[in-house]
Amino acid sequence: MDTWQxxxxxxxxxxxxxxxxxxxxxxxxxxxxxxxxxxxxxxxxQLRRNEFSGEARAGFCMMGACQDxxxxxxxxxxxxxxxTFISAGMDLTxxxxxx
Amino acid sequence: MTKSLFQPVIVGAGPAxxxxxxxxxxxxxxxxxxxxxxxxxxxxxxxxxxHFQRSAQNLYGFExxxxxxxxxxxxxxxxxxxxxxxxxxxxxxxxxxxxLHGPTQTTHSLPYRQLIVATGATDRVLPIPGWTLPGVYALxxxxxxxxxxxxxxxxxxxxxxxGPLLYLVAYQYAKAGVAVAAVLDTAHFSDQLAAxxxxxxxxxxxxxxxxFLSWLRAHGVGVHTGVRPLRVLGETRVQAVAWHDGQxxxxxxxxxIGFGYALRSETQLAxxxxxxxxxxxxxxxxxxxxxxAGRSSVAGVYLAGDGAGIMGADAAEWAGERAALALxxxxGVAVAAxxxxxxxxxxxxLQTFRSGLERAFPFPRAWAAQVPDELVVCRCExxxxxxxxxxxxxxxxxxxxxxxxxxxxxxxxxxxRSCGVAAAEILAHATNxxxxxxxxxxxQAPIKPIPIHLLHAPAAERQA
Lengths: 99, 464
Fold this sequence. Notes:
CATH topology of chain A: Ubiquitin-like (UB roll)
Largest sheet of chain B: 5 strands, parallel
Oligomer: heterodimer
Order of helices and strands of chain A: EEEHEEEEE
Structural class of chain B: alpha/beta
Shape of chain A: globular
Largest sheet of chain A: 5 strands, mixed
CATH architecture of the largest domain in chain B: 3-Layer(bba) Sandwich
Number of domains of chain A: 1
Number of helices of chain A: 1
């Protein structure tokens, strides 16, 4: 239900080139210089599900320490979302309920 | 001594690492600078991607000049240092560092003889139920979102915990036009009053703190002191926060929370290097031992900045320079003794102020006794306070590495960075011991996750 409500909100630096990518099968768009975390969470409310509880997670420390923001690509590749920049054509999954 | 063989390695390009590099260069030495981030600056002076447009004033506020000076200093050094950004040191063995290059996902070994460890700090977190919900971030993380990405963690944000960063981040959010629903400080106003004499040793810093507080109040932000955070409420994301104000339970709707209790040092690398640790009472943490100049207990290994004990960014700059001078002097290079002494004096003088900060924003010692069994302590593997307490009861475990082996707390991907402080507090409380007597989580390689095939790559490939 509220999975597709964004968690992060842009308040500055919105004058940047668009970067198209795919999120849970949908064509969406981020801005050049976004981390994967920013790109995903300005679209929806989670990055992944915890392997043990199955609950939604959206990162925590934002500085590469907590390792709670690993995002899986459709091809199985994994990215630490807070420290990887989005690039055009990335095909990412969040484990979220499909809209 | 041939200078070409003398190439110290600096790990970290925050305030300490940058000043250390600058000092080495000034003495004709070309260091290797390894930094996990894509741009130098560290966390507090973290730089957004190059094409972002906000001014330094907008990004760093009162610290704009300091940030610009540090960035400028490093930019001017670029041709004189072997600078390797996006480079994570994930292991050390023999006299070689294992370094993962992020963008190419390749690892190589880097030999060293002298090493300056300037690994910085992260938020110190004492969790409450609900802290794993999307929308709850570490306080420094909330700041990173704004500074580095131009994003707010929510549209109605509560900042919670204690420490100077609490007011700074709340102020920065409010200035950026985000609704700050409240600031909830676990410290009491009386703590701040009692700390005043020590804080007055750095009047300019104190004045900034008071400015943030009065600005927030003047702009209608509720600032509550002496609170006890109880839980974050919500199903799939943050909807509200509950706390106890000393008399009754209170509750406030919000869609995001930034929280933390000052900072904790990143000490894993110092640990893998074999540095001796001591428990530092006023930081309530086991920290690598160092002399006034920054020499660790291991010959050739120097420690500087918040990674060796929380002293803040200014002190990190001084300590970085001081450690580099010590490294040079130990190698037989002539350095200005008066400058070294002056730096040590500054660092010493700052200690009074730091102890004032600990007094003004004290660690909430009652936390472990108050958290309920259902609290998830370990975000990685979902281990609760109740599981930790039951493990202690059932096995008699009274040491943190034993508790880790039995319960898996601290064994997940974060290696205890997020949960280590909390787990030690719960163990100390459950065993009725002072926290310094339950030990410290031993560092393990890889310090952070690396692709598994790299661990087994033949040496030649790893050298690539």
